[in-house]
Every structure is written in C-alpha cells, then in structure tokens.
Amino acid sequence: MKTRLLLSALIPLALTAQVTALRIGHLVDRENATVANNQIVLVENGRFTAIGPNVAIPAGADVVDMSQYWVTQGLVDAHNHLALTYKTLPENNSYYLTSVLDSTAIRAIQAVSNGMTMMSAGFTLVRDLGNNGNYADTALRVAIEQGWIPGPTIVNSGIIIGGFGGQFSPVPERENLIYPEYLNADTNDEIVKAVRRNIAFGAKVIKICVDCKSYGYTADEMRLFISEAAKAGLKVAGHVQTNAGALRAIDAGIWSIEHSGALDDKTHKLMAQKGMWRVGTETPLTEYHTGLTPAARERYQRQEDGLRNAYANKVKLAFSTDADYYIPGMTRGQVVIDFLKSWKDAGIPAPEILKIMTVNGYLVSDIYDRRGPVKAGMPADLIAVRENPLENIDTLRDVRSVMKDGLFFKRDGVMTPEKFLHSGPTPPTAWRRQ
After folding, report:
1. Within this chain, do residues 230 and 316 fall inside the same structural domain, yes or no?
2. Burial per residue of 199-218, b for 16 or more beta-carbon CB atoms within 10 angstroms, e otherwise
3. Quick one: 343 and 418 in the same domain?
4. Model confidence over 115-158: pLDDT tens digits?
5. 232 and 260 co-located in one domain
6. Could you read off the pLDDT of 334-381 as tens digits, one per residue?
7. Do 135 and 235 belong to one domain?
8. Tally of domains in the chain
9. CA gap 431, 403 in Å, rounded
10. Continuous H helices in 288-349
11. Residues 238, 180 share a domain
12. Phi-psi region of 372 (alpha: psi -120 to 50; beta: other; left: phi over 0)
C-alpha cells in the first residue's frame, strides 16, 4: 500500500495536466504528401488524442492558436555526436585531444547544451552514434527520459566497436588511450562481448567501424554483430571508409551505411535492392564548414554527384550530419540545419527533403511505430514554421514552435525549457536504469 501511494505521488505533474487544444492552420502530413487546413489537435498526457477539422474542444482545455503556422512532425538528425565538440580551448581543436583532455562529465554537459539547441532548431530525435566518452550518451538519454533535462529523443550507440585501435593510431606506450572512444573487438568472442557490453550500458543501436583499419571486419564478422544485436532487437550501423568495406557491409546485410564518400553507382544499386539505409553526412560547402578552397570545392562536387546518384537509384536516404564540431557564433542546432544547403544543391525537391528529415529519420532510427507521426495515440512531438516546407524547405531554418511529449519547448519563437524539468515519464519507466 505504501509503495502504491509513493508511486502515485511521483507521477509527473505534466501527465496529470489538462488537455491542450491546438488550433493549427496547416497540418503537413509528409508520409501521405498532404496538407490539411484548419485542424484541431488535442494533446493529453503527452500524446495526441484527437485530430481533425471538427474535433470538439473540451471545457477547460488550454487552447493554443497556431493558425498562422505550418505544422509537421519533428525533424531527425540520423548521425550526430552530441558529446563531442572539437573546441573547449584554443589548443584543443582536435578530436583526439578532445577525447583525452575532456572528461566524460564535461562532455555530458556539452551534450545537454547541444541537445537543447537541436530541439530549438526543430530536431526532436537524434541518432547519437558514438564518440561520447564513457557512455555520456546513455546518461543524456536517461536524463531526458526521466525529465531532469529537456532534449530530443535519443537513439544512442554507446562506444563505437572496431578492430584494434578504432579510428585512432595509438603508440605502443599509450595504446589504452583509444578507450573509451572505441572498444577493441578482434575475435568472435570479443565481438559478442563488445555488443553485450554496449547493450548492458544502455545502447539502442550498435555502431561498428567496418574498415577503419586495413584489417577491417569480414562479412561473416559483421553478420555476427548483426545477429548478436538482434537478440536485443537492435540494428547495426556501419562506419564505412572504403568501397571494399561498403561491399562487405552490403553483403553482410547491415542496417545502415554511415558516411558516403566510398559509395558509388554499383553500391547504391546494391543498397537499393537490399533496402539498406544510406546515412551520408553531406557537409555543406561554406567558408565556415569546409572552407572554399579548390580542393574543398572538388570534394563537394563529388559529394553532390554521389547524393544525386543515390537519389536517382532510389536508395533509402537519411538526413545526417556527423556534427561534432564548434563553429563560432553558431549553436549545434544551427550547424545542423545548415546542411539543408547540400540537399538543395543536389537537386532534391523540397517535399523529398522534408520526408528524408522526418519520416525517413524515424524509420532509420527503427522507432517509427512508436514515435514520429502526428496521429492519435502517438507521443505529441511537432514543430511549427511560418511557410509551407513542401514549397520552401528553407523555412525549416526558422522553427517557431517545438512540442515534445506534449510540452512546448519553444513557443512562438520563445524557448520554455523549464516546463520539462522533473516532468519525467510514467512509472515504471522512470525507475528504469537505462
């Protein structure tokens, strides 16, 4: 009896609040490529409960006028590194030095800040793929789920698993410096143990280095990763650097190929046949992202040609950035939304870009049956912009309102993060360790 009373007392206030009624001018459903005008959307206990033009607004509901906005589901960055920011000190503008000099604690705090700016930019889901120190990504996800901080839904990988050395080039005297950025796994037993370790410490997707070293994983070794992850219902994402590595990953049946520099027409055709995800991380050509040197322009042209080829081959595409760096004067959210330029330069139509940033993002995150669509019964996540994103995709650069789990993180351009503090999920989720 005492336990029941205690749990009742701990049910978050946000989940016993009144109904919120949204008067939406234009509701964009990218899954069906439609716009429904003058809709009433009811939200209660963090979920959508009713949607339609003639929905009755209950007495006492909190009515929010969004009649001037185009509203759609939240955006997704399918490849980010929230707890990695090359910067902190002038002499620390290096990924390797960051991993050595910045503690997991400070990186977790950076992840909180980066996650909040991602939310402000309209990203309500982030697939966070490693380089988070000693499981700062799990700490971030759990803190958000328990309501200690506001932030996007996190699908995190834990520590990246790779052959000896990961992406680093350690020296014999300091070979252990690769940890905790990478887990060494060079035998079948080590592969199984590394996957289980990440799962035990809170990973929701497994990320591997397919070919970060010349002794990259074979197709059979990747099949072992895939089967072991599948025991826990998880998918495997593969960091790929070479064409040979991409072909092995495709042969193995990997869920997603991360980065696109090694992909070509042949691999795109094979990926399309097998229904594999291309998480390409196409960095825009700007003075502050890449520089404007002839070499940068040449790399960018190859990148855009590759993206056009993937689109023409009907490969499943995700909006993904590999954002892990600091640009003076820009938040992580602003850095990420700037990647719109790459997709526009590749000639991808605005409706398709929006689908890639929403529907495809939830699908590659393997969460679309539980979160994403604006429909009754789903968690109440949405964003609002001033113009129709099906016609002007750049309107996403100025997200005016963001709702996550039925709470406004941002409303009419004003951030209200305090609403999320201690709002937490319902028991027993709040008691889940990770």
Report:
1. yes
2. bebbbbbbbbbbbbbeebbe
3. no
4. 999 999 999 999 999 999 999 999 999 999 999 999 999 999 99
5. yes
6. 999 999 999 999 999 999 999 999 999 999 999 999 999 999 999 999
7. yes
8. 2
9. 24
10. 294-312, 332-337, 340-345
11. yes
12. left
Distance of alpha carbon 275 from alpha carbon 239, whole angstroms: 17
Q: What is the mean pLDDT of the chain?
A: 91
pLDDT, greater one: 418 or 389? 389
- Tell me which of 307, 335, 364 is where a domain ends: 364
The residue type at 402: V
Q: How far apart are alpha carbons 291 and 202 in whole angstroms?
A: 37
CATH of residue 197: 3.20.20.140
- Tokens representing 200 are 């035990």
Phi, psi dihedral angles at 398 (to 5 degrees): -135, 70
Whether 121 and 168 share a structural domain: yes
CA 200/CA 182 separation, integer angstroms? 16
Evaluate whether 385 touches 399 at the Cβ level (below 8 Å): yes
Side chain identity, residue 199: I
Q: If 0-12 CB within 10 Å is exposed, 13-18 middle and 19+ buried, where does residue 13 land? A: exposed
CATH of the domain at 395: 2.30.40.10
**Spatial separation of the C-alpha atoms in residues 238 and 256, rounded to whole Å:** 6
Give residue 430's pLDDT. 43
Over 70: is that where the pLDDT of 424 sits? no
- Rounded distance between C-alpha atoms, residue 123 and residue 411, angstroms: 15
Say whether 86 sits in a helix, a strand or coil.
Answer: strand
Question: What is the structure's pLDDT at 17?
Answer: 56
Domain termination residue (choose one: 312, 347, 364)? 364
In order of 154, 178, 380, the CA distances from 114 in angstroms are 12, 24, 22
Distance of CA 273 to the CA centre of its chain: 25
| pTM recorded for the entire structure | 0.92
316 and 402, same domain (yes or no): no
* pLDDT band at residue 18 using 50, 70 and 90 as cut-offs: confident
- Domain ranges, residue 299: 75-364
Q: How confident is the model at residue 87 (pLDDT cuts 50, 70, 90)?
A: low
Burial 349-386 (b: 16+ CB within 10 A, else e): ebbbbbbbbbbbbbbbbbbbeebbbbeeebbbbbbbbe
Residues 345, 357, single domain; the answer is yes
> Does the pLDDT at position 234 exceed 70?
yes
| Mean local confidence (pLDDT), 46-72 | 97
What burial class does residue 276 get, using C-beta atoms within 10 Å of its C-beta: 0-12 exposed, 13-18 middle, 19+ buried?
A: buried
Residue that wins the pLDDT comparison between 431 and 31: 31
